[in-house]
Amino acid sequence: MRMKIKILLCICFIVLLSSCTRTISESENRDKDMKYTDIEQKAQKCNLNTVNYLFCDKEKDLDLYFSINISKLNIQRADLYMDEILQIDDISINEIYDNVINITITEDISNFNSIRVYDSNGEHLDFYVGEYYFEPYKQKTFSKDIDTESKIRIEDTDREVKVIVCEKKEVLVNHEVRIKNPKEVEKYFDCDIEKETESRTFIYTLKSQYAGKVQISYEFAIEFVNLQTKEVDTKMIYYLPMLKEES
């Protein structure tokens, strides 16, 4: 009789211990899920109103920005998604520092809006990174004799962005300057071009119709067309105007 009581007590103890362990495990999982959800929400806050229209040739280097320091998350690999549909598996990660992940896209891709990152334990986090749309564009080789690196200036306000190209007079006279944007950018901006030969300045203004509502990043190409040889030299510029969000 005593033996039966001992066996029953042992069984009850094992059941109780198992129940406690399961409860603790479930609690830990809930805490971890809540922690991950909190990280996801905080990290993607700066990207909620961002739309990116970019040119893309054979490959594209991109800096993905976040609202928190993600360098301590021990990220081992990442995938790109568009509305939960996988676009690129195991994207190439070049560097992770502070609130930035630098990646290289080497595959054909038309768009993406989120990145799924994995840590060393295989756990993953999903971050919304803003809408990214790519337009194919073949970049021309930039001539060594036309150096505009220090002579291209960008100014922006809440309603307009000015691209100011200052060049030597002979370059401005002998070359036609063109600025190309991805076609989708036209949804958000009206364009105005001004050329001042005497002051050696070429001004290209984008006037936003959506200031105060959206934050738009985009890429454009400054083309220098040699009027004699008809050769085209291109310099690609990636720019992120910081427009005020809707209050």
What would your notes on this structure say?
Helix content is 19%, strand content 46%. It has 247 residues and is of the alpha+beta class. Strands 1, 3, 4, 7, 8, 11, 14 and 15 form an eight-stranded mixed sheet that branches. A hairpin with a 2-residue loop joins β3 (75-82) and β4.
Instruction: Provide the residue-averaged pLDDT.
Output: 78
Query: What spatial form do the alpha-carbon principal axes imply?
Result: elongated
Strand content: over 45%
- Structural class, please? alpha+beta
Offer a quick outline of the entry:
With 247 residues, this protein is of the alpha+beta class.
Task: Please write out the topology.
Elements: H1 2-43, E1 50-56, E2 60-65, E3 75-82, E4 85-88, E5 92-97, E6 100-105, E7 111-119, E8 124-136, E9 152-156, E10 160-166, H2 169-174, E11 175-180, E12 189-196, E13 201-208, E14 215-226, E15 232-239
Features:
eight-stranded mixed β-sheet, 247 residues, alpha+beta, four-stranded antiparallel β-sheet
